[in-house]
Structure formats: structure tokens, C-alpha cells
Amino acid sequence: MSAKLNDAALDTIFRTARTQNAWTDQPVTDDEIRAVYDLMKWGPTSANMSPARFVIVRSKEAKEKLKPALSEGNLAKTMAAPACVIIGYDVEFYEHLPMLFPHQLEAKTWFNWSAEWAASHAVRNGTLQGAYFMIAARALGLDCGPMSGFDVAKVEEAFFPEKNIKVNFLCNIGHGDPKAVFERSPRFAFDDIAKII
Ligand SMILES: Cc1cc2nc3c(=O)[nH]c(=O)nc-3n(C[C@H](O)[C@H](O)[C@H](O)COP(=O)(O)O)c2cc1C
Q1: Is 129 exposed, middle or buried (0-12, 13-18, 19+ CB in 10 A)?
Q2: Which fold, 24-177?
Q3: How far apart are CA 12 and CA 58, in angstroms?
Q4: What is the pTM of this model?
Q5: pLDDT digits over 83-128, tens only?
Q6: Distance 172 CA to ligand 1 centre (A)
Q7: Assuming Cys at both sites, which of 115, 147, 175, 185 could form a disulfide with 170, CB separation 3.0 to 4.6 Å?
């Protein structure tokens, strides 16, 4: 049986967690970043394919490399963030399936027969892993600022010279300054968007 999280934990990962737009000076350490990965990696993916790939942009030099790809609205806050995580996905994830899914050694052939088919799985599962990353970061006391306002081609060219890695979204991480958080936007009520049949 899974244990149910208490209210404080649910607040930390969902109810009071907010998308951050400004950051305190508190840095994000290597140990914290590795701990986030070591938690999120357990989130499920199809055939355990684990297609997400991460580059943590933290140094001044790496930030300068990212800068030209950022939209105007995302520029200042990303340059000021302790780190910006590039969340990508490997469209050739199937090459690793013999290691990742060893009890079905033919699993590679389920995906490698069509680039389009493989990419659809990489996007779906890579996006899930991006979400797992954010939930794990919040669970470990970090704040997140996810972004899709950037030039994907520029980020791929600058950070992923290997052509099999594509970029999904960016996520600033650190300790948020609550002063820059927008008013909470509404969410759909269950009955507006779901039904139990
Ligand atoms: C994949 C993704 C892309 C986003 N892109 C941007 C962006 O480019 N710039 C931005 O300021 N906010 C961006 N956001 C932030 C959303 O607007 C924000 O998460 C949403 O309004 C909910 O805010 P809340 O978490 O504070 O309730 C993005 C969020 C996600 C998950």
C-alpha cells in the first residue's frame, strides 16, 4: 500500500507551489540538482525508455550561450536564476532499451522502425519526465519557473550538437522571490473537464 502524503507535503508540491519569476541569491548546489534527478528518475515511462536529457545551465559562460535563444519576457529572469535546466529528449532512446528494459530484449524493435513513431514516444515520455523533474524539485525544497518562450533551434544548436537530442522546455530552478509571483490563475473544476463513466 502506498502511504498518503500529508497536507503540508501536498501544499509543497502543488497547492502553494507557484511558478516563479524572480529569485533570491541562494545558489543551487550540485548535490541538490543530483538529488532531484535521483528522485525524478523513478517516475514511470513507456517501456522504461527514460528519453529525457538534461543540461543544467548554471555557469556565467553557459548562461551567455543560452541568452540569444531566450524570448524578451524570459530573458532577465533566466539570467538571474541560480540555474536553468534545459529539458530535452532523445529521439533515439531505443538504443538504450537493452539496458533499461532487459526483460524484453526485443523492445528496441517496437520503436526503431519509424522516426515519427519513435519521436512521438520520446516527446510524450520526455514531457512526463520534465513534469517529474519539477515535482521532485519542489519536493526537495526548490522552486521552478518553466518556460517555452525561447528559440528551440538555437538551443539545440548551442547545446545539443548530437542531432538525436531535441529540446522540449526550459525550467529555471532556485529559491523564488514571492514578490514577483503573479496572482494565482483559476483552474477548471473537475466537472468542467472530466467525467467518471
Ligand atoms: C511548459 C510550460 C511553459 C511555460 N512557458 C512560460 C514562458 O515562456 N514564460 C513565462 O513567463 N511563463 C511560462 N510558463 C508559466 C505558466 O504560465 C505558469 O506555470 C502557469 O500560469 C501557472 O502558474 P502557477 O504555477 O503560478 O499557478 C510556462 C509553464 C509551463 C509548464
Answers
A1: buried
A2: NADH Oxidase (3.40.109)
A3: 24
A4: 0.97
A5: 999 999 999 999 999 999 999 999 999 999 999 999 999 999 999 9
A6: 11
A7: 147
